[in-house]
Structures are given as C-alpha cells and as structure tokens.
Amino acid sequence: MPEGHTVHRLARTFSSLFAGQTLRVSSPQGRFADGAGVLDGRRLVASEAWGKQLFLGFASDGAPADVSGAASGSAGTADVLWLRTHLGLYGAWTFAGAPDAPEVAHAIGAPRRRIGERDSVPAPSGPDVVPTAAAPSDAWAAPEPRGQVRVRLLGAHAVADLTGPTACEVITADEKKAVETRLGPDPIRDDGDPDPFVAAVGRSRVTIGQQLMDQAVVAGVGNIYRAEALFRAGVDPLRAGRDVPAATVRAIWDDLVVLMRDGADHGAIVTTRPEDRGAGPVLAPDRGRTRQNTDGSPGAVPSDQAFYVYHRDGLPCRVCGSPVLVKELAGRNLFWCGVCQT
DNA sequence: AATATATGCAAAG
DNA sequence: TTTGCCTATATTT
Q1: What is the greatest pairwise CA distance in chain A?
Q2: How is A113-133 classified by DSSP, letter by letter?
C-alpha cells in the first residue's frame, strides 16, 4: 500500500531513531525468529530505500557507524548484513519512543487508525528493563507488541514493529545488489536515471499504465502515483508505451521526481494543483474508502481534494467535469479521465 | 461472526 | 491471466 515515498520516509525515520545504535532484534510473532537471531545485537549502520524496498544494514557490534551507507569499498562493509523488507499491500511499521526520542509518525505504511499519542509506557522500575548499548537518558520501556509483529527493533529510546510485510529477510551485500539490479530507476533517489525508464517505455507495446506499475521499469510508483502522473501528463493509460512520445515520457519522470519527493518529505500524496481544488468541501460522497496515505503529519490539503482521479470514479473530473473512469487492469483498479487523457 | 477492502508482488496456469 | 499470500480495519450479516 505504501508507495515509494513512504519507504523513503521510513528509511529516514530509521536513521533518525536508530543510527549507529546496537539494536535488540526479535520476532514476537515468531515467524522471523531465525533472522532476528542473526541480527540481534548488531549495529545499524545503513538505512536505504530503493523503490518500495527498504534495506537496513547491520554491522557486527563494534564496527564503525556509517549510516550514509556511502563508504562502499572500505573495510567493514563485508560483514554488513542487510534486512530487506517490503510492505506489500498491508504491511506497516509502527513506532513508539521515549520522550527524548526524535519525533516520528506513529505508524508508516498501510493506513492505520491512529491509536493515540505515543504508546510509551512508564518504566516498570524493575530489573527486567532490557539494557541497550546507548543508555537511555531516562528510564523507558517499550510497549508490548500489538498484533502480528514479525520484527521488533529496539534501540536506546525507541522501538519499531513490523506487521504484515510481503518480504522480510536477511541478505548479504551481493544479494542486495541482485535485488537492486532488477529494479528500475527510482525518481526519489539522487542516482535515479531517467534514461533507462524512457527507453524501456518506448520499446514496449505494453500500455504505459502497466509499465508505470512495473518495478523493473520505474521503482516506487504505485497505483496512486500512476493514476495521478498520467492525468497530469494528459496521457491515456491504455496507450502503448512505444506510442507515447519520448519527451512526454521524460516529462512524466520529471513530474514523478517532484511529486514523489514531495510525498517523501510530507508523508502524504498530494497531486492536485491549487487551482484545481474545490474551494469548499468537494461534493464527493464519502464511499467509506481511504483516500490518502495517513502516514506522517496531515497536510494542508484535505484528503478529498488531494487527487485528480484516484478513487474518484464516477465523480466529475476536476478539470473537464466528465465522469472519472475506472477499469480493472492486471488485477488493479485503474482510474483516469477519458476526455483529459488521450 | 463473517466478509470486503487496500497505495503489492510473484508463482502458477 | 489467475491465484495465493501477508494483516488490520470497516462494513455487513
């Protein structure tokens, strides 16, 4: 459910909460017991995102911290093990922290009702407070895991719980490289290169709508960014990629860079231009569906005005007024305006 | 209590 | 192209 912006935001959150710390790693649910045992007691030295993949690098305790993950080639990278996670449709990380922990969103991932403020619990002042490498400035105990927690990362002043991931495994640097090799460029990453994206779209008869969802073509785009970027570009999702001018494909990339980086910064997807948002409450009847990523702080834009076409089927197009269309394509709902997008 | 739904992916047919 | 999987939440029976 999270698209790439969410995962980049997670990578930043892990850096700010746990960078350089020796972590206790466990699997309360038990399904990741082996992997947790391997990582337990190691030090977090890197936190990276590529598309929807999150990579957390763990060095054996005592290795120098290098959370940028940039110093490849230096001694010490060899013994880094990586925790690769992918949230899939329902995965989510939830966080809780001591009062002195950096402020983070309570939950990042699948839409979750906010449970309240931080789930921090007063220290039991008993002997069973888990000691951590970097001693917390004051006593703090992590809350009990709630639900099916596959992995729990416990640091000096914060805890992160993962539920419902579609992927969760410990891999080597070589295996990480292999995963990255089959991913397309990521518009959020500084090293994201538009050329392979433009080339891939242009050489295929597969519809541009499907190609935007193909993580080997472009990494991090999901159903919302696909629908919204194509609307903003005025491109019919059902057009064959090779029939879309390269300059238009390149413009879509440039737009994705802006939209997705903004999403990563703010924690919410907003694609509407101010002039296209309704002044008052938009007539959209509430169909009981989540309209927007709920991670991070709520943006200034009401969630029912954040999108042009995503989940707006049957409602009037914000630009031309004709009803927004929906169709199932390759198992996912595709939303678009049949008039504005050609 | 059972069912429907979700911003995803990959293996099987 | 279809199926299976991972989970929490809202809606319906």
Answers
A1: 68
A2: ---SS---B----STTPPP-S
Give the Cα separation of A181 and A175 in Å (integer): 10
User: Residue A14 CA to nucleotide B10 C1', Å?
Assistant: 28
Distance A88 CA to C4 C1' (A): 13
Check if the beta carbon of residue A186 is closer than 8 Å to that of residue A192: yes
In this prediction, residue A275 carries a pLDDT of: 86
Looking at strand B, which nucleotides approach a protein CB closer than 7 A?
Answer: 5-10
Residue A241: predicted pLDDT:
94
All structural domains of chain A, each given as residue ranges with its CATH number in brackets, are: 4-181 (3.20.190.10), 194-337 (1.10.8.50)
Q: Which positions ≥6 away from A74 have C-beta within 8 Å?
A: A66
| Active-site residue (options: A24, A42, A43, A52) | A52
Contact A84, A179 (CB under 8 A): yes
d(CA A310, CA A304): 10
Q: What is the mean pLDDT of each run of 10 residues along chain A (342 residues)?
A: 88 94 94 94 96 95 56 59 92 89 72 31 33 57 90 94 93 93 95 95 93 94 93 95 96 96 88 78 38 41 83 91 89 92 96
Q: Clarify whether A3 is annotated catalytic.
A: yes
Q: Which nucleotides of C are covered by protein (CB under 7 A)?
A: 1-11
Pairwise CA distance, residues A305 & A274, whole Å: 9
The C-alpha atoms of residue A288 and residue A294 are separated, in whole angstroms, by: 15
Taking phi over 0 as left and psi of -120 to 50 as alpha, with beta for the rest, A291 belongs to alpha
Q: What is the DSSP string of A151-191?
A: EEEE-SSEEEEEES-SEEEEE-HHHHHHHHHTS---TTSTT
Q: What is the pLDDT of residue A89?
A: 85
The pTM of this model reads 0.85
Task: In whole angstroms, give the CA distance from residue A27 to residue A163.
Answer: 10
The residues pairing with A256 across neighbouring beta strands, listed in sequence order, are none
Asked if the Cβ of residue A86 lies within 7 A of any atom of strand C, the reply is: no
